[in-house]
Amino acid sequence: MVEHSETDMPAAESKQGLLDMKLVAGATCACMAFVTIVITLSYVATHNQSISIPKHDEVEATALAVVLAGGGSASDGSIASYLLQRNVTLTPSTTVNTAGSPFYMIYGTTPSKNIQCVWALLYLVDEIVSYQYGSGSSLRKQSVIARTDSFVFRTPIHGSVSSDGLTLVVAYINEPNGPECIYNSTGAGVASFEIKDDCSLSLATAVPHSGAGPPPAVKPFQCSAHPHGCYAWQDNLVFCMDRGTNAILTYQVASNSEISEVHRAAPEAGQGPRHAAFHPTLPILYVVTEQGSYIFVYKIGNDGRLTYASRRSTKESETVNSFGGDVFLTPDGKYMYADNRGLGSSNSTLVMFKVSDDGLTVSAIQQSQEIGFPMSFTLTTLSFYCNPSAGACRNNVNALLVPTMNTAELNSIILASDGKMSDIVATSAAPASVISVVVLPCTVHGACGGFTS
Q1: Three-state secondary structure readout of the chain
Q2: Average pLDDT score over the chain
Q3: Domain extent at residue 309
Q4: CATH number of the domain that 329 lies in?
Q5: How many structural domains does the chain have?
Q6: pTM for the whole thing?
Q7: In a domain, 425, yes or no
Q8: How much is the pLDDT for 62?
Q9: Looking at the predicted structure, is the pLDDT value of residue 42 above 90?
């Protein structure tokens, strides 16, 4: 780990018992092959079938990691599950074949009946599949939203549920982009769907995105619109990042699930906003940019209007050749984490920031050693963590779950009480082209660790 010099930098905790970090080369993005890791309690389903999870009475597991693996065509894909144990190791469980290249999964409930739902975004077939949690160790498929002559959006990539729980808002990125800017904005946009009592979806609004990034736009990424991430805020507001047009759009969700743009903000030209995170207690939005590799900090007004506050690079040097990826904050809002996705054979890292008390500035504290192309990652809180080597257990420990795309691995990193990242604590083999991680609640069928067949 590389630590930045800061006068207010807290002392590092002991890393006794932690494994040495593996130094892994970075890689370019394999944009047509994907894997999604989903952390859940006891089950998951593929596009066409269910998985039954065997009993693991001898394992004190906190969750189940499920890897959704895509391939180079719409007929490729598989799902592999892993037990996430109290020492943050990932133990392989089951693997089944599927199709459609799942890219991301979204969790929600139906307010009227409090049924728990999962929606899978199938990148290569332009579909959203709705699942309902059953009474056993499976998910039950409810419906499929597909591309049609009247609904032409392509490649769903990210989304979230509105604050009232009635609407699913999804970004369609319209990928892939050609090296000579051969793609236009047709198929790019943000769609809203009414959530039905059985978890199925009904299209409410399809808002096309168009245009290109302002000069100096970064080709080929900003030749046309590419919505990348949508994040729900209070009062039925949703913030959507458009990497292609270099814009952050504020949408208002109506009671009938229709959406309308109410405000628009933009970082500096060429930055390419990609993903975002909210401060847990303050009205502040943190946006990570892909081309610029910066964290932009915005104050959120009551009407969803964004006011620029500050920015900070995710890279140690502007000469480093890497792209920004994802961003997460700890539940107390004190620390932030982002990833740099290096091009070529190096420069893929994770970076830790300290967040100011008012939330409006961030300071880089620690940069990890190189890790194999973390296309995305997630931050989760373990209710109970044990480190057998150190002979100690702690409650409410934060951890990063990091899939590395070019090395096909799942990595676990523990966060100390001062926010600093440990070396990699555990690594497990994964299918090729791992891309994203989603954490589902551990209360689906009771406390974590209560696995049943």
Answers
A1: CEECCCCCCCCCCCCCCCCCCCCCCCCCCCCCCCEEEEEECCCCECCCCECCCCCCCCCCEEEEEEEEECCCCCCCCEEEEEEEECCCCEEEEEEEECCCCEEEEEEEEECCCCEEEEEEEEHHHCEEEEEEECCCCCEEEEEEECCCCCCCCCCEEEEEECCCCCEEEEEECCCCCCCCCCCCCCCCEEEEEEECCCCCEEEEEEEECCCCCCCCCCCCCCCCCCEEEEEEECCCEEEEEECCCCEEEEEEECCCCCEEEEEEECCCCCCCEEEEEECCCCCEEEEEECCCCEEEEEEECCCCCEEEEEEEECCCCCCCCEEEEEEEECCCCCEEEEEEEECCCCCCEEEEEEECCCCCCEEEEEECCCCCCCCCCEEEEEEEEEECCCCEEEEEEEEEEEEECCCCEEEEEEECCCCCEEEEEEEEECCCCCCEEEECCCCCCCCCCCCCC
A2: 79
A3: 2-439
A4: 2.130.10.10
A5: 1
A6: 0.85
A7: yes
A8: 54
A9: no
